[in-house]
Amino acid sequence: MQSVLVLKICCTAQQCEHSTRARIQYERIGNDVTMQCGSLDNDASVTWKVNGTDVKARRREEGPRLILMEVNMSSNGLYSCFQNPDGQRRDQINLRVGLPPKEPQVTCRSNTYPKGFYCSWHLQHPTYIPTDFEVDVQHNQRPLEATRDEVHKNRCHVKFPELFSSFPYRVNVTAVNSLGRASSAISFEESSIVKPDPPEKVVAKPVANNARRLEVTWNSPSTWPDVETFPLKYFLRYRPLIRDQWQHVSVEHRFSSFLSSLPTSQSVREDFLRSLLGLLNLFLLHIKAESRCCVMLISIKLLK
After folding, report:
1. What number of other Cβ atoms are within 10 A of residue 270's Cβ?
2. Residue 178's Cα: distance from chain center in Å?
3. What is the C-alpha separation between 117 and 120, in angstroms, rounded?
4. Residue 14: helix, strand or coil by DSSP?
5. Which of 134, 201, 141, 140 is nearest to 172 (CA)?
6. Is cis: bond before 114, omega within 30 of 0?
7. Where is the Ig-like domain (predicted)?
8. I need a labelling partner for 141 at 20 to 30 A (CA). Which of 202, 208, 222, 224 fits?
9. Topology classification of domain 200-303
10. pLDDT for the residue numbered 250
């Protein structure tokens, strides 16, 4: 037969209060703040310290209460109260002052079409205290699962429930802290947020035996999952450094192009990919390539 040893730990009210960890008290910048020394009676006499030193901020003391006037960031600190005359510590308060959040700025983008999209958000003004975010994604009046990013704390990922949907998506982000909450919502069509990442491994080099031409090669974005089904169109802008006018080349279904130092131009067709993939990705990659006749500055854009 096994025996069980039960230990019962008791403490007096004074001992328990003494062992209590500091509690956090959040207050708004500019407000008057009242801190109560534990559960002492109104006629109790106490001495207050902040970070181990005397409290020098503008204040008023009423029995076991310390009232700070119009707190600011310098009011932050660990406040301790000691009961007179024995000097027993009765309470500790970690005062954190800040602001309630304002509406977050929300943007959404799909760089992995047709797998899904991600949404990011940020606050334009700091709150100075911990602030969390609640995310709600709706499509055709149905909620969608939003998975928080493991690296970027203010980002979530959502899978497309269907493709070529005529119903808009709605994303609502709510910023919440101990002083308040604020929300922002955006709505968008599927095609309007598709924006591929920049091309990768871009290389420009002179063509052998032709000093007036450059060969440019690149890889499609590794994040783009299906180049065959959803091909990308590339738009190259380039110019000799001695000229101000840009020259243009549009490339489809290829990952290389030859550029001439002579003026060239090619129109960009308005087709289904433009309506599906949305606006231009504002990516510019500058490369200097030297040949015997000129130095050329090359910019590459992805058309969506």
Report:
1. 8
2. 20
3. 10
4. helix
5. 134
6. yes
7. 30-81
8. 224
9. Immunoglobulin-like (2.60.40)
10. 78
Would you say domain 13-98 falls under CATH 2.60.40.10?
Answer: yes
Structure tokens at 136: 């709600």
272 neighbors 216 (Cβ within 8 angstroms): no
**pLDDT value for 258:** 56
Separation in Å, CA 38 to CA 23, 25, 189:
10, 13, 55
Domain ranges of the chain: 13-98, 105-193, 200-303
Question: Do residues 236 and 283 touch, judged by C-beta distance below 8 A?
Answer: no
Below-50 pLDDT ranges, the chain = 1-19, 261-301, 304
What's the pTM value of the predicted model, to 2 decimals? Answer: 0.74
pLDDT per residue as tens digits for the range 221-263: 899 998 888 888 888 877 777 778 888 777 775 565 555 543 3
Angle CA 260–262–267, to nearest 5: 80
Q: Which of 153, 206, 207, 146 is nearest to 171 (CA)?
A: 146
Q: Where are the alpha helices (DSSP H) in the chain?
A: 13-19, 272-277
> Which CATH number describes the domain made up of 105-193?
2.60.40.10
Integer Cα distance of 43 and 269 in angstroms: 84
Question: How many percent of the chain have pLDDT more than 70?
Answer: 76
